[in-house]
Amino acid sequence: MVVEEAQPSICTEAHHHDIIGIVLSFVGLAYLCWLLFALAVHALPFFAGVTSGLTAYHSGSGPVAAIIIGAVAGGVVRVLGQVAFTALRSSLVRAALALLFAVPAAVAGYHAARGLAQLVVPAEAWRDAVAIAGATIVAATAFMRMWLSSPPDAEPGVAAGLTSPHLPASQISEVRTSRL
What is the pLDDT along the chain (180 residues), one digit of tens a residue? Predict the structure, then answer.
């Protein structure tokens, strides 16, 4: 009787775990990139909140008060920016306000892209190129999110969600009174 040697299988359980790990790493990376683009417009309020919170903390208030002050300051900057952007009709002023929100987003995009580039790009010049491209893309995304949040010819309150952009104001008031 001849006994054959067992041949090791190419697909072992360890390989399946490696493949699943790689796939989940790409899913996580894609989610982080989506999160970066989705939250890019909030970079200015976040910066204002962190700055005011740290200022409050270093001026003698406790950590809880500093967190509350930072959260309130960030919220106020976000709300004031959105209300100002909705209320203003001048394209030049709206562009300047959108650019004000896009610049901190560009800084955040630069550092995020630079961090990712350091993981996979060996050449320093290419790391900088990837970081600059990331900053440009994130800044453009933040600018367009602000710019498209309310068209200049829309009625006041459309971007704030107070009215429906698809119904004229007269129909909206009729809908509101019929619901009461």
Answer: 666 665 665 555 667 778 888 888 888 888 888 888 888 888 899 999 999 999 999 999 999 999 999 999 999 999 998 888 888 878 888 889 889 989 999 999 999 889 988 988 889 999 999 999 999 999 999 898 888 876 656 555 555 444 445 555 555 555 555 555
Contacts of 57 (CB under 8 A, 6+ apart): 63, 66
Same domain, yes or no: 49 and 74: yes
Range of the structural domain that residue 143 is part of: 90-151
Entry pTM: 0.66
Six token digits for residue 148: 């498209």
144 and 94 inside one domain: yes
- Biggest distance spanned by C-alpha atoms of the chain: 94
